[in-house]
Design goal:
With 233 residues, the chain is mainly alpha-helical. Helix content is 75%, strand content 3%. The chain has eight helices and two strands, in the order αββααααααα. Helix 5 packs antiparallel against helix 6 and helix 6 packs antiparallel against helix 7.
Length: 233
C-alpha cells in the first residue's frame, strides 16, 4: 500500500509539472510597460528555429559572406517596414492636427455664442420655458455658468493631452487622449438637457477619438519594430 501511495503521488506531481510546462509560453510575447513602451519577453528555454541547410550550403560563395548578406537584407526589410509605418503615421497625424485646429476654432465660436446668449437672457428664458417654469431664473443662470466653467476646464485639459500625444508619439498618451475624447462625447450628449448640444462639435470629437485610437495602434507598431531599423531610418 505504501508503494502504491508513493507511485500515485509521483504521478500527480508529474501531471502537475506537465500542466505547468504546457501553461508556460513557448514563443516570445510582447508586454506593454506602464510608460507605453513595448518589451519583448523571451522564455528561458526558447530557441529560434534554424533554416534548413540545402541549397544554402551549395549557394554559399567562396568568400563565405552569405550570412552577412542575409543579415543586411533582413535589416533593410525592417528599415523599409519602419519607414512605411512612419510615413503612414505622419500622414494621419497631419489629418488629426487639422481636425484639432478646426475643432478648436468651432469651440471658441460656440463658447462666444454661448456667453452672448446667456448675457442677453435668451438662453435662460428658453431653459425656463423648456422645463415649464419649474426652475427659477436665478437657478438657470447659475446652471449655465457652471456648465460653461466645466466646458472651459475640459477644453484646456483636452487640448493639452492632445498636444502631448502628438509631441511624444507614445501609445499611452494617445490612449489618454482617446479616453479624454470619450468623456467629451458623453459630456456633449449631456448638454442636450440644457439645450446646448452642438452636432458639428460632437462629430469632430468623435472623429478625433477614432483617430486617437488608430494612431495609438500605429505608434505601438513603431515601438515593436527592431531598434536597429529605427536607428537606420
Amino acid at each position: 500500500m505504501s508503494t502504491y501511495g508513493a507511485t500515485e503521488q509521483e504521478c500527480k506531481a508529474d501531471a502537475e509539472q506537465g500542466k505547468a510546462r504546457k501553461a508556460m509560453p513557448t514563443a516570445p510575447i510582447f508586454l506593454e510597460n506602464p510608460d507605453g513602451t513595448i518589451t519583448e519577453a523571451v522564455p528561458s528555454g526558447f530557441r529560434e528555429a534554424k533554416p534548413k541547410s540545402g541549397r544554402r550550403s551549395r549557394e554559399r560563395g567562396s568568400d563565405g559572406d552569405s550570412d552577412g548578406s542575409a543579415g543586411s537584407s533582413a535589416e533593410d526589410h525592417a528599415a523599409s517596414m519602419y519607414s512605411e509605418v512612419d510615413f503612414l503615421y505622419v500622414r494621419h497625424e497631419r489629418v488629426l492636427l487639422f481636425l484639432l485646429v478646426t475643432e478648436l476654432l468651432l469651440e471658441v465660436l460656440y463658447n462666444v455664442v454661448y456667453v452672448m446668449r446667456m448675457m442677453d437672457g435668451s438662453s435662460v428664458a428658453e431653459l425656463v420655458a423648456m422645463y415649464s417654469f419649474r426652475i427659477s431664473t436665478r437657478s438657470a443662470e447659475v446652471l449655465f455658468w457652471v456648465v460653461f466653467a466645466i466646458q472651459l476646464v475640459y477644453s484646456v485639459v483636452y487640448y493639452v493631452v492632445a498636444s502631448l500625444a502628438v509631441w511624444t508619439k507614445r501609445p499611452m498618451q494617445y490612449r489618454m487622449f482617446a479616453n479624454c475624447g470619450l468623456i467629451g462625447i458623453v459630456g456633449l450628449l449631456m448638454l442636450a438637457y440644457v439645450d446646448k448640444f452642438n452636432l458639428i462639435v460632437f462629430f469632430l470629437h468623435l472623429l478625433s477619438y477614432i483617430y486617437a485610437r488608430f494612431l495609438q495602434g500605429l505608434t505601438a507598431s513603431l515601438l515593436l519594430l527592431p531598434q536597429q531599423a529605427q536607428q537606420a531610418v
